[in-house]
Each structure stands twice: as structure tokens, then as C-alpha cells.
TrEMBL record:
This is Hydroxymethylglutaryl-CoA lyase. Residues 6-273 form the Pyruvate carboxyltransferase domain. It comes from Salinibacillus xinjiangensis. GO terms for biological process: ketone body biosynthetic process; L-leucine catabolic process. CDD domains: DRE_TIM_HMGL. The keyword Membrane does not apply.
Amino acid sequence: ALPKHVTIKEVGPRDGLQNESDMIRTEDKIDWINLLSQTGLSYIEITSFVHPKWISQLADAIEVAKGIEREKDITYAALVPNKKGLERALEANVDEISVFMSASESHNRKNINKSIEETYPVLEEVVLGAKKQQKSVRGYVSTAFGCPYEGDIDVKDVIQVSKTLFDMGIDELSIGDTIGVANPLQVQHFLTEFREHLPEQKVALHFHDTRGTALANCLVAMELGFDTFDSALGGLGGCPYAKGASGNLATDDLFYMLNGMGIETNIDREKLLQAASFIQSKMKKSLSSHQMQILNQG
Ligand code: HMG
Ligand code: MG
């Protein structure tokens, strides 16, 4: 049976913006996040405390995190790659810390400059440090359904990385289709095997829509009982260290499908589209989601 309620975790201010070459002003990011806070979303990934040279768009992470108005029932999360990032994230007092690594050796190296083995102790230090400050921790495993450098990924490799992250003490795992290659049958086979080894109620799915399969992948995951999905408003997004990793699943498209199916999300459609129109007005392009294309046609 399909879930009655789905939690949408908005990653637009982080995953959505990190691939944008035109700089968005800090105050516009803050205003956008404040609008997102009024939509009914319960979780917003607001920025990332990675090295500013690696992701210059998010170099203003501390200012953004300190500048937004926090709603008390919303979790404001941020990406953290290492101890230095954790120090910055704690200074900015985000609610949740997200560590990240890849299931494939080559994407891990391209993205965070380390082998998988070298990454574990770095992330463990972050997880323990965050826990010490009573922060919840999310762990991402990227390239779970395919790697831009290595192609197919064995689900056993994803399970291995995921288990190690759970052993460190993460509260939730997000499984990433970083370059948007997954298809529904693959997702079905993957999740069926995956949940034999890991706590499925602590797993979110993070689909990119590069090839148009993200909503279909969500449907298959929901049929298996998964009820937490990451998405970015307007379909913004991508990982600059994975060629072709454009476009997260669009929050507005996911919302449209779930709402039509009678699945509760607590999101207000008008406010969601207002927030999308706002960030679109600050960019030199129109947003690519289906809902925004319809809206833009008037
Ligand atoms: P590195 O160059 O190997 O870092 O980068 P290092 O540890 O050797 O340090 C070098 C210098 O950088 C030092 O300064 C550090 O202090 C400084 P120095 O002593 O030379 O003056 N430094 C920092 N400064 C500020 N903040 C920091 C930080 N860390 C070191 N956090 C590093 C390693 C991990 C930092 C780098 O590779 C990096 O920032 N990578 C991030 C890449 C990224 O953000 N990719 C996109 C996010 S992942 C994604 O999109 C996938 C996801 O959406 C899920 C999916 O779709 O699958 C999550
Ligand atoms: Mg992503």
C-alpha cells in the first residue's frame, strides 16, 4: 500500500544552488529560505559548509544560516564535509549536520578529494562532534544507482558504505541518484535488497531528474513503503563534480503528483509556487520544473 503521508525534504538552497554559476545574493537566498519556511515544509537544507573554493556559490554559508528566520518546527540542515566544516556549521548553529560520500571510489575522490577508506575517519569525527552538540546527523551516499566515471554500481557497495555510516551513528540515510540514471525497475530491485540489511524507516531517497525518471522512481519506492524524498524547488540542482548531474527532482512536481494521489505532505501549493517564482526572479533563467513551465506560460 502507498504511504498516507510523505515527508519532502527541500534541498534547493543547497543542492539546487551549488551548481549555479551566476552568483545569487546572500539576501536573496535568505529571503528565499524564509519563503520556503512558510510553505509547510518541515525540513530545509539551507547551505553547505564545504570549501568555498570548491563551491563558491555557497561561500556565504554562515551569513545565510545566521540571517534566516527560524521556525521552531522546521529542521534547518547543512552539508558538512570535515571538521573545519563542522566548526563553521556549529558557529552558524544549524539544526542538523549532513555528511556525504560516494559509493564509487572515483566520484568520491573527485568530489571530496579522498579515497573511500580515507573518508570514513573524517566523517566519523564530524558525526561524533555533531552528536556531542546534540545535533542530529544525516548521511548521504552518492552515486548509488550509477557513477559518471565507473558506470554501474553494485548494491553491495552501497550497503557497505551505508552500514558504515549507520555504525558511526547517523540518524537518517539519504540514498542519492547523483546523476539521475536510475529507472523504476532498478530502484525496486535495489530497495528490495537494501532493506534486508538496513533500517528502511531511516532511509530517504534523493533522486535527480536528469533523464526524466525521478517521479517514477519515487512511485516505486512508495509502493515498497518508503516515504521520505529529497527534492529541490523548480528542479534546480546538480553536483558540479559529477558531469551531467543537472536537476534535482522538482519539489513542485513531486508535490503535484502526491497531492493528486491524496497523499498528505502538509505543503501549501500557492506558497510553494510563490517561493519558486521568487527564486526564479533572481536568476537569469526560467526554472525547469513542469509546474513552473506551466506557470511561466501564464
Ligand atoms: P581538500 O583540498 O582536500 O581539503 O578538500 P584539505 O582538508 O586538504 O584542506 C585544505 C585547505 O582547505 C585548508 O586550509 C583547510 O582549512 C581548508 P589551509 O590550511 O590550506 O589554509 N578547508 C576548509 N575551509 C572551509 N570549509 C571547509 C574546509 N575544509 C578544508 N569545510 C574538501 C576537501 C572535502 C574540503 C573539498 O573537497 C570540498 O569542499 N568538497 C565539496 C564538494 C561538494 O560540495 N560537492 C557537492 C556536494 S555532494 C552532492 O551534491 C551529492 C548530494 O546531493 C547527494 C547526491 O545527489 O548523490 C549530497
Ligand atoms: Mg544531489
